[in-house]
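debug: dumping io for the single-chain case to check the tokenizer round-trip. Nothing else runs in this session.
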Amino acid sequence: MRFLTLLPVASLALSAPLLEKRVCSAIPSIFSINDFAVFNQSTNQQGFSPSDGSFIHFNFQDSTTNVTTSCGRSLAPLTGSVADASNFYACANPVVQYMWDGKTLTLREIFACHGKTKVATGSAAGGSECFPEEPPVPLGYGTECEYPGETSADDIPVTSVTAT
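debug: decoded output
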């Protein structure tokens, strides 16, 4: 009888890795972004008074987890760049966060996996076109960056998945 009571426990132990794979099947592997645009306003506007400041904006999609959200932030006029290599900023859906250091866009998505919180991270360097802007453009002097073909998506591979 003792053998019979241990058999179900052994069966559960052997099936645990299979159960975890089933529960964690929606692990992100590719992040897609589109409509990416950045404007870094110069603090020297040479007498021009812009109504808006620097900004970053893009749309995020992960077809594995079905998360779609807009991301971005804006600064007040003449307050500097949106580039920040030290902080992640939440998107409209806060499970997605981003960091823009002026050259590299780093994305992370928080998701549940087998009762634990995990974070998928991916980065893309370059790929954008940057060009100077001058008045009478409403934003004033600065540098604007965007991916070619503003509506085309750019895929960013997930490079790590970690537990929090």
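debug: round-trip ok. The radius of gyration is 22 Å.
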